[in-house]
From TrEMBL:
It comes from Streptomyces jeddahensis. The chain crosses the membrane at residues 20-39. NCBIfam families: morpho_MmpB (NF047320). This is Uncharacterized protein. Keywords: Membrane, Transmembrane, Transmembrane helix. InterPro entries: MmpB-like.
Length: 41
């Protein structure tokens, strides 16, 4: 990669969507763990 290459920053919408997906994945993971605990009890 050359120093003269333009920065390939993703557009604002893409970053927002990525952040929302990451948050949704985290919530889903926590929900799965909690449901496993409830089923175990």
């Amino acid at each position: 990669m050359l120093w003269s290459d333009p920065e390939n920053e993703p557009p604002e919408e893409l970053r927002d969507t990525e952040q929302m997906l990451r948050r949704a994945g985290l919530v889903l993971a926590v929900a799965m763990v909690l449901s496993m605990l409830v089923i175990g009890l």
